[in-house]
Amino acid sequence: MEHGRSLIQVSISYILLAMIALYGLSSVGNIVEFIQHFHDGWTGWSLGLGFGLTLFVSAYIASIAKTRQTRIYALIVAGCFGLSSAWFQMSIYLEGGANLYVSFVLAFVPIVVGEVGLAMLESSYSKDHEIVTETSELDRMQAELDEIQISLLEAVAQAKEAEGLKEKVSDLQQALQESIDETTEYRNSAMKYDGLAKELAQLATERDKLAAKLERAATEIQQTAINVDLLPQRLRSELQAALEIVAEGQITAQHDFVAAAQWSRSKAQEIFRTAEALKLIRMEDSQWRIVGETQ
Fold first, then answer.
1. What local confidence, expressed as pLDDT, does residue 127 receive?
2. pLDDT in tens, 130-163
3. Which segments of the chain does DSSP mark as H helices, in order?
4. Per-residue pLDDT tens digits for 221-235
5. Which end of the chain is flanked by fewer CB atoms within 10 Å, N or C?
C-alpha cells in the first residue's frame, strides 16, 4: 500500500500514467516526423519531447492548481501546445491520405483525451483518495473529540459528585463537632453535678454535726435551766444580767466582762465564774458566748 492506498488503486494510477506516456510518445513521434519534413536534425526530437511534456505537465497542473490564476495559466499553455500539436499531427494524417474526419479524430482525440483528459483523470482519482483519507482523518478526529467531550462530561460529573461528597463530609464534620461539643458540655455538667453532690454531702455532714451540737447544747441548756431554777432570785437576776453582757459585747476574756459589768471587780469576777460553772457561757472561736447561742 502506498500512502494508505490499496494495491489496485496504486496499479490504476500507474496504468493511467503509462497510457498518458504512450499517447505522449505518439504525439512526440508525429511532431518529430512533421518537423523533419522541413528540418532534419536533433531539434525535431527536442521540439517533439518539449511539446509532449509541456502539454502533459500543463494539463496536470491545471487539474491540481489551488488558485484560479494558476489554473488559467496552465490551461492557456496546455491549449496552445495542444492545438499546435493536434494541427501538426492532423497535417501528417492528411498528407498520408486520410480524410478530414479521420485526420481530426486521430489528431485531437489522443491529445485532448489521451494526454490532457487522462492527466486530469489521474489527478482527480488521486484526489478522491485524499478526500477519503481526509474524511477518515476528520472522522477519526471527530471520534477523538467526542471521546474527549465524553471524558470532560464524566470529569464534570465526577467533580460535581466530589463536591456533593465534600458537602456531605462537611456536614458530617459539623455534626461530629456538635456531638463533641455536646459531649464536652455533658461532661462539664457531670463534673459540676459531682462537685455539687460533694458540696451537698459536705453540707449534710456539717448539718449532722451541727444537729448533734445543737442537741448537746439543748441538753446542757435544759440541765442548766434546772440548776438555775434552784438558785436564789438575786443570783438569778445577776446571772441574767451577766448573760446580757456576754450577748451584747465582744467578750474574749474575763477582764472584758469585768470592764463591761457595773459591779465591782471582785463581784464581776465572781458572777463570771458562777456563769461559767453553771455552764451558762463557754468559750467558742476565741469568744465567750451563751451556751446554745448560734452565730
1. 74
2. 655 555 666 677 777 777 778 778 777 777 776 7
3. 7-36, 42-64, 68-95, 100-109, 118-229, 233-248, 254-260, 265-277
4. 555 554 566 678 888
5. C
- pLDDT over 70 at 211, yes or no: no
The mean predicted confidence, pLDDT, of the chain is 76
d(CA 89, CA 96): 11
What pTM did the predictor assign?
A: 0.38
Is the pLDDT confidence value at 213 over 70? no
Long-range pairs of 213-216 with CB within 8 A, sequence gap ≥ 24: 214/292, 214/294
- DSSP, res 4: T
pLDDT at 265 over 80: yes
Give the separation between CA 67 and CA 75, rounded to whole angstroms. 13
288 DSSP β-pair partners: 283
Q: Name 90's Cβ contacts closer than 8 Å, sequence gap at least 6.
A: 103, 104, 106, 107, 108
Write out the DSSP string of 229-264. HTS-HHHHHHHHHHHHHHHHS---SHHHHHHHSSS-
Q: Please, which residues have CB within 8 angstroms of residue 191's CB and are 6 or more apart in sequence?
A: none
205's CB contacts (< 8 A; 6+ apart) are none
Q: What angle do CA 278, 281, 286 make, to 5 degrees?
A: 145
Q: For residue 52, what are the contacts with CB-CB under 8 A and spacing of at least 6?
A: 24, 25, 27, 28, 31, 85, 115
**Positive or negative CA dihedral for 65, 69, 72, 77?**
negative
Cα(214)–Cα(292) distance, rounded to whole angstroms? 7
Q: According to the model, what pLDDT value does residue 115 have?
A: 73
Q: Which residue has the cell 474527549?
A: 148
